[in-house]
Amino acid sequence: MGIASEALKNFKGFNLKNLPEVEPVSPGHRACQGCGEVLALRQAMKALGTDVVVCSATGCMEIITSPFPQSAWRVPWIHVAFENAAAVVSGVESAYKALNRKKKINSPNTVFVGYGGDGATADIGMQALSGALERGHNFIYMCFDNEAYMNTGIQRSSSTPYGAMTTTSPRASLASASPPRRRICLRLQWPTALLCGHGVRGLPHGPHEQGEEGLFGAWPRVSPHLLALPTGWRCGIDESIEVARLAVQSKVFPLYEVIDGVYHLSRKVAKPKPVTDYFKPQRRFRHLTEVDINKIQEKIDADYEALIKKCVVEEKKEKEPKGAEMSVSLDGA
Known about the structure:
single chain; about 325 residues; alpha/beta; Rossmann fold; nine-stranded mixed sheet
């Protein structure tokens, strides 16, 4: 059993009945109507509690929670540059470790959290995150993925889905579009990232489970969350939760975790909905032709089947006798 698997073996998780009442992010912030990102941030922070230090990359959540001289944060919080949240949270974690060792503070259980959007994670901040993971710092990194640079004008990021319209990738034939991209979890292939799990706004227990799991062990954890943003996704402000659910139900955004290099499916889609159901509420996909949609559906089906096979293989390996090799390389995922 690997380090993370051993730490998580007695984990039971949260549900809506035992949801923590603590609110590290206070109401009264300035998020837009229907914002899925602030819902994810609130629920993740409820799971993590108040003994935390949070490092925020520049982005929507920094702007809406900290307009000077006000703040929606009830825990220590640092705003840093677009590209270096992972580097700063690494430094904070190291400083606490040194101060605890010298008996200048007594905070052995403090949780260190860094977060950013998909641009601050998959593009601008990838180098800092890579370094922090390689060094093995004890921190949680959350990527709030709304699939574009929403704060600065809905520009395309490397997390923007195949075929989606942004202000820098206007509608065009998919023949000239960029190829489909890997999700964040599949791009983070370092063995030191012992826990990497997908979450989504629209399934309320998801971030609590991942947040509580992140409290175990002294190793880096990465948790990408898919969030609907009505402004950039061109959906109604009352549809952000339903659209996020449809992302899971249509297999566009499968929920799974990679722990010690082993794949675990969090939620299997038994009766998947067609990708057209997911696209329909979002005007960013309205230019797609039937041929385009069929091509995308084929890719989604193939990727999901590949993921299922990985998870099945790992389940079989977990049942092998004690001492058997249980982890696999993420190369080629």
